[in-house]
Every structure is written in structure tokens, then in C-alpha cells.
Amino acid sequence: MAKRTAVKARAWFGQQIALLCLLLISAWSVWGAEMVTNGAFSGSTGWTFSTATYDSTTGRSANGSAKLYIAGRNTATAGTVTQSISIPAGSVINAVALYSQLTTNYETAGDNISVDLRYEDATTVNIFSSGELTNSAWTVRNGAGVTLAQNVNQIIITMNTKAGNNTAANASLWVDDLSISYTASNNGTTPGAMTSFGATDKQISIQVAFTGDDDNDNSCVIAYGTTPGNYNFTAPAPVKGAGIYTTTVSGLTPNTPYYFQATFTDPDNVPGTVTGTFSTTPPLSDPLLHNSINLAPNIGRPAAVGVLPVVSMESSPVPPVIIETPVT
Predict the structure, then answer these.
(1) Considering the entire predicted model, what is its pTM?
(2) Residue ranges per structural domain of the chain
(3) Which of 49, 88, 110, 277 is spaced 20 to 30 Å from 184 by Cα?
(4) Which residues of 19-56 are buried (b: 16+ CB within 10 A; e: fewer)?
(5) CATH 3.90.226.10 fits 32-183, yes or no
(6) Does the structural domain 189-279 have CATH classification 3.20.20.140?
């Protein structure tokens, strides 16, 4: 009995572990990837400080933090902490969270934090604004989601603090545990399969699939030839659809294999090429050899001119002739 109980307990424990793993995977898929490297400030690696400094002795947990300090009557200062990143346009910011702490002996307005993302054209988009801060222990604050209009190359944390109206006034503002969750767009192009349809003896229609290109800036050129590896002719410009390019090549030779190559270009990556081999159908025969008269069976056909029909004697019996002799 005890053995059965132990086995059941182990099975239950295994199920709970599996469920926990599933929940963690699901949560990651919902919230996406982490944008920030070393958001816990475990050392200064990955960060560039300007006026703000790295504080190795103060942190929300055992790690360090970013700190901005000011002292003096009604004095104010601003500092930044930045990190270089590379996030493609079209990506979605799912969640923003950071911890902050403010310590000041004479409170006054002017203490706040913002987090912005720098676009490649040097403009920025704000994803977090703390509003006015007051004396507080470590407190988590959250930002808002946004869809990125351009590629992003930098995270910018801006810290502002101000000392109060006293000669002994000072203020210290800390930031720690920054997290930015995002779902990356798929702007690069991945070529798919090449297929043909509607082939005749003189034309072939080609379709080439692709995935990605969320920012809709790829292009495709389809070339063809009659020998493998030689694509000497360019097909008409293919029409772009949802994940597919289509074109039709005419004026081909009947019953002939043709070798096709589709070359994709995309500013976001180097997608490469995809190839395929497709043949035209055999030539159509002379339609006069296939008209209804020549293909009809002989039964029931009209007789040729100049040929008399044969009449069966059995079908038209001749009546007997009776000759009478007069009596003399």
C-alpha cells in the first residue's frame, strides 16, 4: 500500500512539474522576448552612463543600480543611462517595468524618470513615464505598449532630480530591474517553394511562395532558360500577393523542359534564390483530323455520291405469275 502511495506521489509531482513548464513556455510566448541586457544592473556591462552613475552598493536586490545624485538649494540635474540594441520596425512592445527609489531630505517638484527608444533617424518614442516622484522605497512602475514605426538602435533612460529649498538639501534617485518585453517583427524574407500551374504547349505559369516581409519591402525577379543553371531570359514582372509571387511566361516551345530561378531581394536580409523545372505540354494535333465526321463510326454514315444502294430481294418478294390456257 505504501509503495502504491509513493508511486502516485511521484506521478503527481511529475505532472505538476510538466504543468509548470507549460505555463512558463506559454507566458514567454505571450509576452515575447526580453529587449534589455543586464536590466538588473549586475555590474555596468552593457550600459553607458552620462551624469548618472553606476551604484554597486545600492540595489533593489543584491545587485547594483543606476543612480542620479544632486545637492544644494533648489539645484536640479538630469542624467541618462543608455544601451545599444537592434530591434526591427514593426516589432511590438508588450510590457515595460522598472523599479525606482527616491530619497530626498527636502522634497520639491522635479523628480521623474522616462524611458525612450531611439529610432534610426534619431527621433524617439516614449514607452515609460513615471510622472512626479516623491520619497519612496523601491517601487515597480509600468509603461505602455507601442508598435515600432522604425528600426530601434538604443534604449534611453532619462533621470531628473531636484534638491529642495535648503542649503543642506540633496536628492538621490535610483533605477533598477528594467524589463522591456517585445514581439519581434519578421521583416526579412524567407523564400518558399516554386510551383507551376496551367501549363500548355506554349506557356507556363509560375508561383513562388515566401514568408516574412512584415514591412512589405521585398521584391522578386524570375528568370528562365532551356538548360540547367542558365537563366538567360527574364519572365514578365511577377505580381505580388499575400506570401506569393505569380507570373506567366508565353511563347515557349512545346514539349520542352524549362529551368526557372526566382531571386528575392529585401533590405532587411539576403533571402537568396529558389529554383524549379517545369515543362510545356506536347503540341496540339491539327484540329481538322479530329472533327466529328472523321471520328464518327461508319454505321449510319450517308452513302458516297455515285453509289447505288443495294436492295435485298428478301425484303421485296416477287409475286408468282399465273398463265391461263384457253379450252378449245
Answers:
(1) 0.65
(2) 32-183, 189-279
(3) 49
(4) eeeeeeeeeeeeebeebbeebbbeebebbebeebeebe
(5) no
(6) no
